[in-house]
Amino acid sequence: MTETLDIKITKTKNSRLQETDFNNLPFGKTFSDHMFVADYADGEWKNFEIVPYGEIGLSPAISALHYGQSFFEGLKAYKHADGQVSVFRPNKNAARFNKSAERLCMPELPEDIFIQSIAAIVDIDRDWVPAKPNHSMYIRPFMFATDPYLGVAPSTTYKYMVLVGPTGPYFSKVLRVKIETYFTRSAEGGMGYAKSSGNYGGSMFPAKKATEEGFDQLIWTDAKDHLYVEEMGAANVMFMLDGKLITPSTRDTILDGVTRDTVLTMAREWGMPVEERRVSVAEIIEGAKNGKLTDAFGAGTAATIAAVGSISHNGEEYFLSDPKTREFSQKVLKELDAIKYGSVPDMHGWNYMV
Ligand code: PLP
Ligand code: COI
């Protein structure tokens, strides 16, 4: 039985809600009035607090800064037409949070603390959840090591925090993507399956180079031969090839996405042939050439369903069909939104009502 978390709440005296421009919400720049904070020490989680959003004091010697003992999650809250607020599949993020924690030698956070912390912060700042199509409240739970110690060893103390903020879509256009054939995001035995901060730090240089070449995103490939597709920088990748929905099977180099799982579940329920397997670069390029690749998109919480307009490989760019004409990704985006915003019944119990 879940016990109710004892959270000390200090409300802000100066809400920023009225001065926030809800017509201009680029991803990740606007934070609500409050944040959730907890500490781990002496083998237990304690000091559960909601405080006004703001800076925190930290030792400059914390190992999160020096050795990257740090990871995060990302999920969203949605406002329904009747004003209710739901969070999408937070139990999946709770489970992945603990997979990341294990990989980084960091303490697990009991699932009910994860869920209750999110419910509490979303509830207190529920007026910040935008009531607009394609908009939501992004929820960013994260944990980092706080021992002021420069030895390379797991910290004994940690902080867990949750930030929330209203946001629009992460990608504002159809993506021009490049299949990366030199750099790697993660290798077998590495931590690609964890939402470890270092994975993102390490991806910025290759992403910057791709941006300089005019691309919006990379499709990462296997570290060994660069012959198999893995995922995109902030989303899993899916293709409609020869009438089948195909996506790389999850392994230790790939993040096991919640959106990925949701899309696959829906596709199977619609009777669509689905294949989770190794996906070769060669078959994708072949499909782009012969017209059998009829859809390609990124699937992620921030990304939602992000259409891929063209795929480049070894200097050759292959253009796909107009995203507006793509049957599957249009349908899946529509249905997914309908569930998240509560306009159709939630048959899977995916919406956690706050
Ligand atoms: N892959 C990476 C590297 C990501 O950062 C994300 C975003 O969270 C995803 C995939 C998609 O995962 P999810 O659908 O759980 O957001
Ligand atoms: C998310 O979709 O929640 C992500 O974590 C992507 C983020 C790195 C921008």
What does this structure look like?
This protein is an alpha+beta fold. It has two domains: 8-169, D-amino Acid Aminotransferase, Chain A, domain 1; 175-340, D-amino Acid Aminotransferase, Chain A, domain 2. Helix content is 24%, strand content 31%. The protein has helices at residues 63-67, 90-103, 111-124, 197-212, 258-269, 281-290, 327-340; strands at residues 8-9, 34-41, 44-52, 70-72, 75-79, 85-88, 136-145, 158-167, 175-179, 217-221, 228-232, 236-241, 244-248, 274-277, 279-280, 293-300, 304-313, 316-319, 351-353. The strands form two sheets. Strands 9, 10, 11, 12, 13, 14, 15, 16, 17 and 18 form a ten-stranded mixed β-sheet that branches. Strands 1, 2, 3, 4, 5, 6, 7, 8 and 19 form a nine-stranded mixed β-sheet that branches. β13, α5 and β14 form a beta-alpha-beta unit. The chain is globular. The mean pLDDT is 96. Pyridoxal-5'-phosphate is lined by residues 74, 231, 234-236, 255, 257-260, 300-301.
